[in-house]
Amino acid sequence: MLMKWIKCQVNEENKRAFSSAQEGWGELLHSAGFMGQIGGWNKNEPLEAGILSVWKDHHSYQRFMQYQHDEIFVKSDQSSTYTNISVDIFEKIFNTTDFTGFLGKGKLLQVTDCYVETNKQAHFEQMQKEVWKKGMMYSPGMMSGAFGKKQNGRYLVASLWDNEHSYQQYMDKESGVKDAPQRITGSLIELHPKWEVI
User: Fold this and answer.
1) Domain span at residue 185?
2) Considering 83, 99, 114, 140, which has the largest number of Cβ atoms within 10 A of its Cβ?
3) How far is CA 135 from CA 9, 59, 92, 143, 183, in A?
4) Contact, 97 vs 160, CB < 8 A?
């Protein structure tokens, strides 16, 4: 499973246009290997949109990028609605439950993007497995989660929550990522139902 994490910076006056364009990605459903997409606005950075797209494997994703992506992108005119975009692809290491089965059910998506030095990566991966097994996957309100990696030492921790109160209660107890990361950025996405492609 691949996780595609997209962040876009949007000017205040373009938020409505960006949102409308994001609603136009329904054609993804016709792409072989596509497993779902969710997104919304970052509660801590109101002018930042976050979109998480899930694919079966690299082959499916590459075929989509080669044959379908540009047509949908141009039709939506989305490129005129944001000032900056970052796109990163992570390969799943593990997930707690059927992550894609919960994509349309959560209200909040927490995404943590970490960089870990090479000599600390094995420890970090083991630490994550322990965190998920011992507490996170049993936290009230936590619906599902996934943990992925890129070749350059970047990791993505994604978790779906049924409400902000549940998420905050967990965060007050334990952050879930500590010690190993050299750089860490977090996004708390309030999911927009009309951006879902499921």
Assistant:
1) 2-195
2) 99
3) 33, 34, 20, 13, 24
4) no
Averaged pLDDT, 123-141: 81
Domain count for the chain, please give it. Answer: 1
Q: Please give the pLDDT value at position 158.
A: 94
CATH classification of the domain holding 155? 3.30.70.100
In terms of phi and psi (left: phi > 0; alpha: psi -120 to 50; beta: otherwise), the region of 153 is left
Contacts of 134 (CB under 8 A, 6+ apart): none
What b-and-e string marks burial along 102-125, b requiring 16 or more CB atoms within 10 Å of the CB?
bbeebbbbbbbbbebeeeeeeebb
Q: For residue range 24-33, list pLDDT tens digits in order.
A: 999 999 999 9
